[in-house]
Write a structure and sequence with these properties.
This protein has two domains: about 190 residues, MFS general substrate transporter like domains (Growth Hormone, Chain: A, Up-down Bundle), CATH 1.20.1250.20; about 200 residues, Up-down Bundle (Growth Hormone, Chain: A), CATH 1.20.1250. Helices cover about 80% and strands about 0% of the residues. It contains 16 helices and two strands. The protein has a two-stranded antiparallel ribbon with strand order 1-2. The model has no long low-confidence stretch (mean pLDDT about 85).
C-alpha cells in the first residue's frame, strides 16, 4: 500500500458536488425517517405504512431502466439540479400542507410515488455525472468519500426521532426543502463539463432512437462479462441485504428489552467502521494487482459475518458490525471506482440504470422472501441462509468469473 500522489481530487466542481450531496443527503435522511413515523402515528395501521413503502419503492423497479438511456443523451448536470429544485418544492409543499392542517393520506401517497420516481431518476443522473468531475487517478478516493458520507448520514435517524417527538413533521419537511434548495443552488455552479465532448449530441431524439439506445445498453452489459458478473453478484448481495433489513431490527426488539435502542447502538459500530474505513481508503492507495483478491476476500468475509453475527454475544455483535463497516466501504470503493472509471461516459446512464434496477429488485425480493420465511423459521436461521446464498454467489460469480472481473478491478483508478 502507498499514499496517494497525483492530481488533486478537490477541484472546484468536485467540492461543489460533494457539498451539495452532504446537504441534501443529511436533510433527506432526517425527513425520510420522520415521514415513516408520521405515517404510522397518523394511520395507526401497518397496512397504510406498507402502502406508503410500496408506493415509494415501486418506481425504483422501472424508473432507473427508463431513465438510463435518457441520461446518456440529455444533460445530467441539468437533470441533477432540476430534480433537486423539484424535490425542494415538493417537500416545502408537504411541510406547509401538514403545518396548516390540510394533510390527506391520498395526497401523501401520490407525492410519495412522485418522490420515488424523482429519487430513482436522480440516482441514475447523479451516478453518471459524478465520475465526470473526478480527476484522473482519484476514483478510489472519490468513492471512499461518497461511501462514507452515505453511511454517516445514518446518524440523522436518531436526530430525526429526537426532533420529530418535539416539533413534529412539518418543520423537518421544511428544513429538508431548504436542504434540497441549497444543494440545487450549489449544483448550478458546476461547470458544464458535458459540452466538452464527454457526452453525445442530443440531436432529434425519437422513441425509436430511445428504444435502440436501451437495447444497445443491454447488449453492452451482456458483452462486458466483467461488468455483468459484478452486477449479478451485487443483485444477489442486495437480496441478502433486503433480508437483513426485515430481520435484524425485529430480532433485536424480540430478544432485548428496549431492543430498538440497543439496535441503534449496535449499528452505530457499523457506521463508525465505515467512517474509519473511508478514511483509510482515502489515505491509502491499493496496488492495482491486489484489488481483485482483496475485493473477493471482502465479499466473502462480509457475507460470513452478516450471516452469523446474530448468533454472537452482544459485545461480539458490535465488534462484527465494526468490521463489517470497514469492509463494506472497502467493497463499495473498489466496485464503484472500477466500474465507473471503466464504463464510457456515453454509456454510464444505461449501465447505472440497469445496475440500480437489478439491485433494487434483488432487495425487494429479499425483503418479501425473508419476511415469508420468518413465519416458519427462526429469524437468525433465515438471515444465515440468505447470506449463505450471497457467499456462494461471491465464490461462483466473482471468483468463477475471475478472468473477466480481475482485469476490471486490477486497474489504476
Amino acid at each position: 500500500m502507498k499514499k496517494h500522489t497525483g492530481p488533486s481530487l478537490w477541484t472546484r466542481d468536485f467540492t461543489i458536488i460533494t457539498l451539495g450531496s452532504v446537504i441534501s443527503m443529511f436533510g433527506n435522511a432526517m425527513a425520510g425517517f420522520a415521514i415513516s413515523l408520521f405515517v404510522l402515528d397518523y394511520t395507526n395501521t401497518p397496512l397504510y405504512y406498507a402502502l406508503y413503502v410500496f408506493l415509494y419503492t415501486l418506481p425504483q423497479l422501472a424508473a432507473p431502466l427508463i431513465a438510463g438511456p435518457l441520461m446518456d443523451r440529455y444533460s445530467r448536470r441539468k437533470t441533477v439540479y432540476s430534480l433537486d429544485f423539484l424535490s425542494a418544492a415538493i417537500y416545502g409543499f408537504m411541510g406547509l400542507m401538514i403545518y396548516f392542517g390540510l394533510f390527506r393520506f391520498w395526497l401523501l401517497a401520490v407525492l410519495t410515488f412522485v418522490v420515488g420516481c424523482i429519487n430513482s431518476t436522480y440516482q441514475v443522473a447523479y451516478q453518471s455525472f459524478y465520475p465526470m468531475l473526478i480527476t484522473e487517478g482519484n476514483f478510489s478516493r472519490a468513492y471512499s468519500i461518497a461511501g462514507t458520507l452515505e453511511t454517516i448520514s445514518a446518524v440523522m435517524v436518531p436526530v430525526s426521532l429526537f426532533f420529530y417527538k418535539r416539533v413534529g413533521l412539518a418543520p423537518l419537511l421544511l428544513v429538508n426543502a431548504l436542504c434540497f434548495l441549497g444543494a440545487a443552488l450549489c449544483e448550478t455552479r458546476i461547470h458544464d463539463v458535458e459540452k466538452d465532448g464527454k457526452q453525445p449530441q442530443r440531436e432529434d431524439y425519437t422513441l425509436s432512437a430511445y428504444w435502440n439506445d436501451a437495447k444497445e445498453g443491454v447488449r453492452y452489459l451482456w458483452k462486458e462479462k466483467g461488468l455483468l458478473c459484478v452486477t449479478v453478484y451485487f443483485a444477489v448481495s442486495a437480496m441478502a441485504g433486503g433480508a437483513s433489513s426485515v430481520i435484524v431490527l425485529p430480532y433485536f426488539k424480540q430478544v432485548f428489552e428496549n431492543g430498538e435502542w440497543i439496535y441503534l447502538l449496535t449499528m452505530a459500530f457499523s457506521v463508525l467502521g465505515r467512517g474509519i474505513g473511508g478514511l483509510l481508503q482515502y489515505k491509502i492507495k491499493y496496488p492495482a494487482a491486489i484489488k481483485f483478491g482483496l475485493a473477493l476476500t471482502v465479499y466473502c468475509v462480509v457475507d460470513l459475518l452478516e450471516g452469523s453475527y446474530l448468533f454472537f454475544p452482544l459485545e461480539w455483535m458490535r465488534a462484527a458490525c465494526f468490521v463489517i463497516g470497514i469492509l463494506g466501504v472497502t467493497s463499495y470503493t473498489i466496485r464503484s471506482s472500477a466500474t465507473q472509471s471503466y464504463v464510457p461516459h456515453e454509456r454510464k446512464g444505461r449501465f447505472n440504470g440497469a445496475f440500480l434496477m437489478l439491485t433494487t429488485s434483488g432487495s425487494l425480493l429479499g425483503e418479501l422472501a425473508a419476511g415469508a420465511c420468518t413465519a416458519f423459521l427462526p429469524m437468525r436461521t433465515v438471515l444465515a441462509v440468505f447470506m449463505g446464498i450471497a457467499l456462494v454467489a461471491a465464490l461462483a460469480v466473482i471468483g468463477g468469473g475471475k478472468k473477466h472481473v480481475k482485469p476490471l478491478y486490477n486497474r489504476e483508478t
